[in-house]
Amino acid sequence: MRLLIVEDEKRLAVSLARGLTAEGFAVDVVHDGAEGLHLVLHGSYDLVILDIMLPSMNGYRVCAALRAAGHDVPVLMLTAKDGEYDEAEGLDTGADDYLTKPFSYVVLVARVRALLRRRGGSGSPVVTAGALRMDTAARRVHLGDDEIALTAKEFAVLEQLALRAGQVVSKAEILEHVWDFAYAGDPNIVEVYVSTLRRKLGPAAIRTVRGAGYRLEAP
Prior knowledge:
Elements: E1 2-6, H1 10-22, E2 26-30, H2 33-42, E3 47-51, H3 59-68, E4 75-79, H4 84-92, E5 97-100, H5 105-119, E6 126-129, E7 132-135, E8 140-143, E9 146-148, H6 152-162, E10 168-169, H7 171-178, H8 189-201, E11 206-209, E12 213-216
Parallel strand pairs: 1-2, 1-3, 3-4, 4-5
Antiparallel strand pairs: 6-7, 7-8, 8-9, 10-12, 11-12
Helix pairs in contact: 2-3, 6-8
């Protein structure tokens, strides 16, 4: 999943990005409200972590502008403020959840995963496709009774396919959601990871649809 962090405290933003990248997310970071709004409106993000006190355009205005434009990306607001009024204002502008600084990183990750599951229409962190079972909260994959060890990137690629099992997912969509916008390498990196997943899940688990992308078949 691809996340955008809009946070002007650079040390906090970098720390969050490193942690979330280690969790298997593709993460982009900006420090300005107007720039964050532009990226969301012209990009493809699964969730936005949005600070309220930002230069050029505060988080309330960014969120309100997103909703006014009809954008339904989940927004998790961060603020150093505290109080029911501030929380109500954030939620009233269209935020989906709210955390007051200082916050627990573990809680933030749990909120992020919960919002992503809610957007996917499932309250459960477990995604199944035939004998394949992915627990997106515990980051574990089972094929039948056997647990399959995956790297963070392998898990992220498989998650994109599993969430749309039986449907074709293009290489561009996988690149967009698994690698951040700073990635300037070979787009064929997706083929490398698909090949690795086939070795671990079985050669028939992921089918190549020529000219279109990849489809996860129920193993």
